Amino acid sequence: MKKLLGLLLVLFILCGCSANEKNDNTFVVGMEVNYAPFNYELANSIDGAVEIDGGYAYGYDVLIAKDIASSLGKELVIKKISWEGLGPALEAGDIDAIIAGMTANEQREQGIDFTTPYYDSHGMIIIVRKGSQMETYTSIQDFGGLNIVGQRNTTYDDVIDQIENVNHVTPKATYPEMVFALQNNDVDGITAEMAVAKGILASNPDLTYVSFEDGKGFDVDTTVSIGLKEGSRGSEFFNAVQSALDSISEETRENYMVLAVENQPAEN
Q1: What pTM value is reported for the model?
Q2: What Cα–Cα distance (Å) separates residue 105 from each residue in 35, 81, 113, 228?
């Protein structure tokens, strides 16, 4: 009996280990699924969407991830993870890549190896209420003394302090939260890149955005890159992902963004 119990225990441990091993036939990508038009959730499937718990992930990041997975000869799996949890999930090996509208910067590069950019919004703007005096502003310094909010732990929050005498509002976790605050007059503006602003405006006709004259805008990098595990640069996997990304033409990338904005649900 003891031998039988011992054998069963060994088999249980072996089965448990096998269950936790990563499937080499999948390309597991982490994203918020709440950052339109880069990534968001749909109730129903459309061409290009990927099933997740409770719905379907779609958006620019999903379309890029599908192309890369196809080039790798793997099945794409999307994991819905909070923004703050993406880095730890990558480090732990729970995901293979972060494709989530993430900008490579000095701080993030200490724990993540980034590919070349897969999109560039070409500048940052501020979303404001339509019909407000702020629509006429041409410089970020015009927003001095006003309440401006950005997304927590992102460049969009960091840049706010480039505005002199600004009231830098405590950042929020998601853009839907910030849009709600703007529409309720809790804040006067939201920092965002152009692609995100277009998606928000498509769903919220009461809002608009302010772009700035040359030399009067934010000094900021608005490119986004794919994040891979630290130490993987130069590896076969890193090079395969980079090669797959390089094979996606600029025309295709622009078309993907058009689709991402067009299919964004109204609540995002």
Answers
A1: 0.77
A2: 19, 20, 11, 14
